[in-house]
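INFO batch 0412 | record 1 of 1 | parsing
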Amino acid sequence: MLKRQLFVICLVSIFYTSLLKAGGDEQLEATGNDLKNIVLSDSSSAEHGEKKFSALCAYCHGNAGSGGKARKLQGRKLEADYLFKTITNGKKRGSLNMPPWRNLPEVVRWQLVAYIISLAEMKQ
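INFO prediction complete | emitting tokens
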């Protein structure tokens, strides 16, 4: 059963990653802290991140990060660097596994971070 779930997660990850690459996400020349600062200071980043979150993360984290199979993200104050590392490298927590999303463009991962940070003010 667990092998089947991991297989499905991998297939979904590959599918959505190919969709994102085909979708023409804007690539910025900046990298590292420069890119982080640019994306997190852009008011439209959370909006872009919300679209990616709905496509990639809502299945486990729930709509608007309300929780589900994975932890609730609403109302939690999480550090940007922690979120970026977790999105990039994935996470294992008991029998739950979050896949690594390192194949997503760096700018998209920072947009996801911007959106998740915006959820800190939400209460449910």
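INFO post-check: The mean pLDDT is 81.
INFO record closed
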